[in-house]
Give the backbone structure.
Amino acid sequence: MRKFYLEIFGCKFNQAEGELIRKILTKNYQEASEKEADFVILQTCGVVEKTERKIIKRALQLKKNGKKIIFAGCLPLISPDLSKQFADGMVGPTNILDLPKVIKKVLNGKKSFSLKQKPIDKAKLRCFIIPKETCVAIIPISEGCLSNCRYCATRLAKGKLRSFHEEEILENIKLAISQGAKEIQLTSQDLAIYGADRGEWALPKLLEKISEIEENFRIRLGMMNPFGAKKIFKKLLSIMKDKKFYKFLHLPLQSGDDEVLRTMNRNYKVKEFLGLVGKFKRKFKNSILATDIIVGFPTENEKAFQNTVKIIQKIKPDILHLFRYSERENTESAKLKDFPNRIKKERSRILTKKWLEILKEKNKRFLGKKYEALITEKRGNTFLARLPSYKAVILNEGQLGSFVKVKILEARPNYLLGKLI
């Protein structure tokens, strides 16, 4: 039996898709180490140029070792010409079922590319993953989006929104729980717009049905863009009162300046973003806010950047995903004049420093307090637990998947240290 090796780059959605690739391939091929494999699948991501360079470097290394290489994921559609230089075969995100025939041709010495969009409901394929040493299940609920952000290359690969069927998502969650999952992470390009392609903003309805599953588990909601979130926010906050939901919100800001948001084509203003954050924090006093910022977008002058700094200091996010703007081929923003990297690096450094100062002070509020927590991951000789807010606590002992009482002993910028009580 021919052997394969799978390597995954990028987000949690890519991890789940990587698991689907593994399921497809193990029907006819045997998974093996990199050295033993006859061919290698790289599950790629092309959101930023840095990741693209990393993937190409890895492909070159594998080529030198005599491996046949197949690119899956977003990069083949984001940078098709570049990808063809390094891959023997390629499949796009919606062509995943074509992998067997692409592999067959590649192993027969031919190049094979399957990139034409073929929308499928991946939930029906049981597209979810429970990473090793965890009790966390990553469950995709949709693919694609409704937005038209001028910097985004992902939409070139993922296409328009395709919401997976509710019944299939629920079945995936029940199956994951039966396999030991205690934390369900719902993921997509934009969670808030689930169902909008079928004429219904259906996320609240889906979440209600998930919460009715009669097991003791926790639900972590994935990223929601403000444009869609504001349409369902009242219902969302009401549903999130259920103890099964972490009091966690991932709402990307991208810029704290209205003019930059306009030129990004984000379809909301800073005031609207702040309104959503305010409602969430008032509803849930002990909660976690995650947000995303892009620094160095071509229209971001110094004043606009300082506006972003002010907003971060105002909302005090617990998690900040900070990206330096990366020009991507075939996006609208690629037509704009880019900033020198030194300016992007400096703005990134300034914002990171401000944010870490916020966290250092903010996390002191946990010291000495007691909480219920779920132990979700084993990391070497320690365990990672999550408070009801999703705040991370590191413990020296525990049992994976158990609900425990903890006392917080120390506060670090990105996590807490605690003990069982």
The longest helix spans residues 341-362. The chain has a mean pLDDT of 94. The first strand starts at residue 3 and ends at 8. The two ends are 52 Å apart (CA to CA).
